[in-house]
Amino acid sequence: MYFPVGWPKILDIEDTGDKCQLLKICCDRVKILFALLTEESLRIWYSKPCVPIVSHRRNANSIEKHGRNMLVEWKPDSSMLVIVTEEGTLLLYSLGVVDTPKGIYNQIDSPSQNLRRDSAELFIKETIPCLTLTLSYEVPLFTPVTCISCVSISQMMVATTSGKVLRIRWDGVEERDFSLDLKRVPFSVNQQVSYAVPILEDKVHITSMDYSPLVGGFAITLNDGRAAFLTANNLKFDPNQVQGIWAQNIDDASCATINHKYRLIAFGRKNSQAVVYTIDDVTGGLELSHALVLSPKDFPGSPGAVREMKWTPDGCAVVMSWCKGGISLWSTFGSTLMCSLGWDYGLNVDLSRHNPLNVVSMDWSTEGYQLFMVRQVHTEEAEGENSASAQCSRMLLVLDFVKSSMSVNPCMSFHSHLLLQGDDKLYMNQGESLQNIHYNSRNFNPDVRAFDSPFYTGCKQTNFFATSYSICTKSYINEGDIKRVANDDAMYHSDDYELGKSLQVTSILSESKHWIVVQLPTAYMASNWPIRYSAIDKSGVNLAVAGRLGFALYSLSTRKWKLFGNETQEKDFVVTGGLLWWNEFIIMGCYSMVGQSDELRMYPKDAKLDNRFAKIIPSSAPVVLINLYKDQLIVFTNDGFVTSFAIVRNDSQTVDIVTLRLYDIRGLCVHPACIVSVTMTNLKNETIPRVQQGSNQSETLILNVSGRLLMVQRENNGNSIEHLTSTCLASCVECIWLSDSHKTHLKESLWLFCGGHGMRVWLPVFPREDAIILGVENDTVLYTSDSRLHFSLPFCVLERTSQVYLHQILRQLIRRNLGYNAWDIARSCTNLPYFPHSLELLLHEVLEEEATSKEPIPDALLPSVLEFIQEFPVYLQTVVQCARKTEIALWPYLFATAGKPKDLFQQCLASKQLETATSYLIILQNLEPSSISRQYATLLLDTALEHSKWELARDLVRFLRAIDPNDVESPRTSFVMGQKLGLSSPTTPVSPNAEDLSLIMGSMARGRSFSTTMNPKQQSESNLNTSPISTKEKTPPSSVTVQKRKKTTREAFAAGEKLEELGFMSASLDFHLVGWLSREKDRAARIEDFVAALKQLHEDLEWPKPSLELKLNPLSDIANHTQESPCYSLQSLKIETNVGGASDSGYTSLPGQQTSYDMPVSCV
Description:
Blueprint: E1 2-11, E2 22-27, E3 33-38, E4 41-46, E5 51-57, H1 60-66, E6 69-74, E7 80-85, E8 89-98, E9 130-140, E10 145-150, E11 155-160, E12 164-169, E13 180-181, E14 187-188, E15 206-212, E16 217-222, E17 227-231, E18 243-246, E19 253-259, E20 264-269, E21 274-279, E22 286-292, E23 306-311, E24 317-322, E25 327-331, E26 336-339, E27 358-364, E28 370-378, E29 392-404, E30 419-421, E31 425-429, E32 437-440, E33 450-451, E34 470-472, E35 476-479, E36 482-485, E37 502-505, E38 515-519, H2 522-528, E39 533-536, E40 542-546, E41 552-555, E42 560-562, H3 567-570, E43 573-582, E44 585-592, E45 597-604, E46 615-619, E47 623-629, E48 632-637, E49 641-649, E50 655-664, E51 675-681, H4 690-693, E52 700-705, E53 708-715, E54 723-730, E55 735-738, E56 750-753, E57 759-762, E58 770-781, E59 795-804, H5 806-815, H6 819-828, H7 835-851, H8 862-869, H9 875-884, H10 891-898, H11 901-910, H12 914-927, H13 930-946, H14 950-961, H15 994-1001, H16 1016-1026, H17 1037-1055, H18 1059-1069, H19 1073-1079, H20 1090-1101, H21 1114-1119
Parallel strand pairs: 14-18
Antiparallel strand pairs: 1-29, 2-3, 3-4, 4-5, 6-7, 7-8, 8-9, 10-11, 11-12, 12-13, 15-16, 16-17, 17-18, 19-20, 20-21, 21-22, 23-24, 24-25, 25-26, 27-28, 28-29, 29-30, 30-31, 31-38, 32-33, 32-37, 34-58, 35-36, 39-40, 40-41, 41-42, 43-44, 44-45, 45-46, 47-48, 48-49, 49-50, 51-52, 52-53, 53-54, ...
Helix pairs in contact: 5-6, 5-7, 7-8, 7-9, 9-12, 11-12, 12-13, 13-14, 13-17, 14-18, 17-18
Domain RIC1 C-terminal alpha solenoid region: 807-972
Keywords: Membrane
Region (Disordered): 1009-1046
């Protein structure tokens, strides 16, 4: 997965004096050199640092004879280049190397002592070669050339407007016997069709062409919009054996490109989309894999035809540009990683008319860390109305990228850390400022102390992977308020700390979204740029990085790098098969340039980096991939064999490796480069009874071959001869990983990330998983919209994302009538903080899908989902939260199955879930008349006062006062329930009366005002008949109800001598406590038993009991400092009643009253 970072840099290419328009940029195969082609010149640049090396400008006679430059292409060994001119002439240039020890661009220090360099960063250790560019051959074809592609180190294919494809050698000789003519090539939909027809139309020619030896042919697009694939029985491409395979349903193709590693063929289209095909192994036809389509949130319009597409060097992403401007980046199987059309360019930029990022040519640099782009910029005249006569200028941009370490090191998919690598730095996501990390040992010590740690031991999105996703699958148990790693499932034992204890994070949600950027030391990167492999251990403390040569280690605990003491040893080998950590050892597959042999090496991290401490095992073939399974090392070599080794640790610095098994997988892949990843698991395809298989069964290999996931296992059918059987589990797979567990009696879960197809999982899932995916996404920040400045383009940043996936698993299980399995999984996740949110997402997605369906649903899933959620105590909360976040129009469908809101409200009161009942009150306010919502609000207010829920009571009082008395007689329109579920229509709603409320509320309805049980219209009519019309405004019935509830509660608290409750009530419900006590001192607030009241007062307010030895003379207390009993002041006995910022409680609002009282002192 690739993500842009920083500003696009502008390279200064005007210093050569060439004012011609820049046409193309093309990198060589190893991405060290790149060529810039203008209309009249050719320049060769070095990629790191980006400096020009040599330039060649054609003279006027050559331009007049052959025309201006059009295209440029490298020879595979970077020794020659070919330029195509407008008149159809091939100009072949030879690139020579001048043998100079120091190369070019040598830095010379100033004679002044103060200006001399004294830092390693100021020295360029990279030797930039001195090159010469000379014209070797001129090959006139006398027909315009449309595209060119290299097929070998000695030959290239040239497509012309005459409909022919010429084969020309790099020495300028045309091989006419191997040239192709489209009118003689048979085309069909697959290779099994006996009837194939050549192209009979005139003036049909190839406009775009790309070749891949791993796919075995050419991907071409024609000028009439059709697309096809040219293949043959062998790579010689005899014209009599070449056959064309049509890409069906395409009539607007604009460009073509091939992914070698995943064997994919991509075609850009004029409708701004792209389609990706794969070759069917059975029929040989082109089978649609996926499409690259912009979503409306990325860009609602059309950015024009696809101009160009380029795969990254590792084949993990493809970049696409459009004719109207803009670029986008997609993963191998269609997941959108970045789209510049969604960037922030300011308010004055109209992307539909003028896109600031109009790319006419592009190519990837070394390891895909930079994207070179030729940007076309409109001048000020072009931005005006008369843009027809305006000119456009072009410049060279460089956009930096970081990528997931899994793209080149698949074994990193088993770790729960987000690690991205740039060309000279690493990006790690850690929550060092927000996480609480606790010590834990096997013998739990209750005196556990939390400490702030800079180490990241938890699991972010994701991704990966996804965008660099990784799934957190660590097992936890609860021990009080501290989450510890179970003794039998301990993830690791931390020998990096003084205490032999493990570390565990309390919650994954507390992780920081900030990135830790680890810059590689100049001493290593100056001569070993760029980063090729990176790995992190399970604890997230130790890092290993391999560049062009050797490797380096980094410790987050010490913040220091460890390099080879002997630089010669560092330069004697190159890492080729990846890096991984096993306990305190770093393992790698490498090639020794001293012995010219392939090796496996293991270095201990605690020892010095020296070959004396390394374990070196010779390999029979180049190591391509390595991985771990428990204590086994899995090695895939270039000869098509997978070998499993047992790792045995002798002491802290030495290990031994024992060969276990050898797997021959040469028949499962076209080429070793097509093996994306290899791992081992306990998963079995039980095709043979266990009795016949025997007791000594080996593990199963899981191979990702060009995106197809294969399960390979040994079978002997009871005989002594064993053979391998393979089963295809899935296709379009970018990344795989297994749940890490040491429980042998549990099978492992297999997780897949399939790009645009989403994620897939093979259950069962281990209990106590952190059911969340972490990943990375791209965002931009605009600093200035002035197009004249270099910083006018947005600044690219990285953001960590997360996504809960538990509800997706539960939904699929419920759909398959596996409710018990879903309940078993959900029960193990109830301790997760986002478990209620997962249930809410489950209900919300099913509700949105079924309630918005235009057709009746025969087998609705909503009843099963609600029945499933009822098994958990958060059912009422889940239903109301889902309803409040859903449109009101969908409520009838929800409550037709979940139950009436009134009934759910009553269940909340019965279970004392008052906050949840408040949410149901809002539902009732939108569905029922105001009189009903007032009745239930009054009932909830009584319960809140009874349970001393003061903040809730204050909100309910505000709610009741906000009810307009004129709205009570206008009921809401009743909704119809259950039309999709086939339920009968509801009966006419009945107006509530006194008997109904008495039946619902019971004894709590006593003393209720008739304003809550009678129709307000009837009540007003009765008042008109019994009393004369008053000119004063009447008090709303809701206010009368609130006042009576307050009075009843005050009297109850006063009778129970609960002064503290009265204080909180006074602060929350805004009534004057002192004034009320004064008025009611002989009635409701009268104290019958002063001694009991005084004791209750001290107990409620937690005041100290009076002591006979307590001296109240402040002078004596000051003189005697040895007084054992403290002297309490009135300030220490004050009551804090500032709850929710309530108004004045009455102490200062009554005239003539004292502002302070000596009631505590009267205790003596």
